[in-house]
């Protein structure tokens, strides 16, 4: 399986490279142990794992808000001759401000209007409030926020608040955008609406996105690749190539190809969760038609241009 080549990453430049990432909080067992993966320019990658696996901590590490105990987080290809490769424990983080981060909660400032909340990232980059407002005002219609510029957060629905937060994160700069379960607090109908909205926005801008979710359907609907783990500490992640055509709509969840991918994702999650608990029934061998669309990535290394 490792010899298969990703149809997504082939020919693209690495935009985010993680090598040998190890991290634990004081007195706790490691969340990550020698973890390796790569995200390519223009990709939409979903991270799928149960609660308590350190997904939000991983995003804080990637964004430079935490420093790993060891390993390298680099924009672009990994630096040659890294300290991790040399067997040392020196950690390298991505520089602050180079990776955008949208947390689970929208964190909008209640005293700021939609216009001024969305403009915050531009202000932090040094633009005047007047210029930041001008740029945001031009973008609001494209994000379904036309006519809301003078509203305050308490006047918006949950979905509209998430759109404002997304615009703020998008304009805040950075080559990669980290989205930490942005739709988890929404009801089922609004979540579907926001998923389809995000698909349209991503098709238009092709921003490189790393997306955390617990929802298998959401991961497969949105992403080019899904990285899956259910075993702690996270040392390797199964990689599922989502070969569904784009542009996509929610009806894709009824496609037989979608259902095959979903079965594989659930199989990996169930197998690793059983191993994590120290028992459980072994999973059946993957079906050949599913393996053709997916592969297991050992320690982040492959023989064919993937992560």
Question: What's the structural blueprint in terms of helices and strands?
Answer:
Elements: E1 14-23, E2 32-40, E3 44-48, H1 55-62, E4 70-75, E5 91-92, E6 99-102, H2 114-118, H3 120-124, H4 129-139, H5 158-171, E7 176-180, H6 188-205, E8 208-213, H7 216-222, E9 225-228, E10 237-241, H8 256-276, H9 288-291, E11 294-297
Parallel strand pairs: 3-8, 3-9, 4-5, 6-7, 7-8
Antiparallel strand pairs: 1-2, 1-4, 9-10, 10-11
Structure description:
There is one protein chain. It is globular and about 50 Å long. The strands form 2 sheets. The chain has a 7-stranded mixed sheet, with helices on both faces. The chain has 307 residues and is of the alpha/beta class. 30% of the residues lie in helices and 20% in strands. It has 2 domains: 212 residues, 3-Layer(aba) Sandwich (Rossmann fold); 54 residues, no CATH class.
Keywords:
alpha/beta; Rossmann fold; 2 domains; four-stranded mixed beta sheet; 30% helix; disordered N terminus; disordered C terminus
Summarize the structure.
With 307 residues, this protein is an alpha/beta fold. It has nine helices and eleven strands. The strands form two sheets. It has a seven-stranded mixed sheet, with helices on both faces. Strands 2-1-4-5 form a four-stranded mixed sheet, with no helix packed on it.
What is the helix/strand order? Answer: EEEHEEEHHHHEHEHEEHHE
Instruction: Estimate the mean pLDDT confidence.
Output: 80
Shape: globular
Based on DSSP secondary structure assignment, what is the total number of beta strands?
A: 11
Strand content: 15-25%
CATH class of the largest domain: Alpha Beta
The level of helicity is: 25-40%
The N- and C-terminal alpha carbons lie at a distance of 13 Å
**What kind of sheet is the major sheet?**
7 strands, mixed
- What is the fold named in CATH at topology level of the largest domain? Rossmann fold
The protein's oligomeric status is single chain
The CATH superfamily of the largest domain appears as: P-loop containing nucleotide triphosphate hydrolases
Please state how the strands of the largest beta sheet are arranged side by side.
6-7-8-3-9-10-11
Tally of helical segments: 9
Based on CA atoms alone, the radius of gyration comes out at 20 Å
Low-confidence stretches: 1-9, 81-89, 278-307
Structural class: alpha/beta
| CATH architecture title of the largest domain | 3-Layer(aba) Sandwich
Number of domains: 2
